[in-house]
Amino acid sequence: MKGENTYGFWRDGCRMKMLGTGMHPRCGSRRTCANRVRAMVAAAASVGLLSACVMAPGMRMAQNPTVPVKTGDASAPPISVPITEIDLELVKQLRAGGRDGESDDIRSLLSEPRAYSLGPGDVVQITVWDHPELATAAGPQPQAAPRPFDPVQGFVIDDHGDLQFPYAGTVHAAGLTLAQLRQRLLGLLSKVFQRPQVTVRIASFRSKQVYVEGQVHVPGAVPINDIPTTVYEAINRAGGFTANADESRLELLRGGVAYPLDLARMAGQAQSPRDILLRNGDVLRVSTRADNGAFVLGEVNRPVTALPKTNGALTLSDALSQAGSINSSSADAAEIYVIRGSLSSKPVIYHLDAKSPVAMVLANEFDLRPKDIVYVDNNGLVRFNRFLTLLLPAINAGLTGAIVTK
Q: pTM for this one?
């Protein structure tokens, strides 16, 4: 019946139906008819796609002043994330603001070196000259080649902070310096000896220690001794930084509070790491560069996790260089984005138009932060070609199946 359209295709008022002879009355063959149908559908699809290519996947974010981002709450509406252009003013503003979570006021960590104060566990050697009989009170003489686990000769300060010395009795030594302990012993021994000559020295430092963790050659406990234990001194005693250490992101834990330390930044300012004295129980952590990298994705030659330098520096141009630069055949240099704080409640997106080589100067000055995402978008032709590559096989398969079935 004319007007019947079983499959939705018409040509000159003829229903496309295979006859018993296997020939179509108009087209002459099944193959010719199928090819014509495919051509018609492909042309129609192309027109539709060209008219709506702005809605294709990977559309330019620069066309929108904000980008909607869904939150963890399914019932909550998506938040709008603004896109900020990278320019010289933005670079200056970000550098002046410092890093997220970085404390600019570390004055509470700065202090003047003081004389070592004794504590429980320390071993001191006390010598009273012209009285060799008192030497036996310090214990047996050490062997010619003492072993590491052999006890140290001397007087151990007990848990109450006291030590026992002949003719002086119980002497409270905790909290005293060597000079103060010597004066106290002189006062007690003067009651027994005339003008005693007393020498006091520390044989083993055991009462105070700090802990150095992370990217150092010998992590572990570092005892505090009579040499001021600064940040640099503790790292040196732990064997120094490893090749993977990030010297710009150290963390000092003291009293339940974490203080971020940037040694590279402090070296160029009035605050010096040499003035930060560590206290008993402090924990100094040295992070690895691999934990502070940025992810480079999109139209680059080699998607990678870009690692900062040992001083923590990582710019946008450094990250693109580690990724082998942008792909010249598929990338759109005008569409380079930096996504920051993607898992936070307030993510930020920065955009760089690098069509001009002069714009790469800004990329060389734009500092990346840990976990930043650098995305290079593709150009319009590549985007449209990929969309067609995904769509046309499905259309061809559907048409072929419908014709063969009929």
A: 0.69
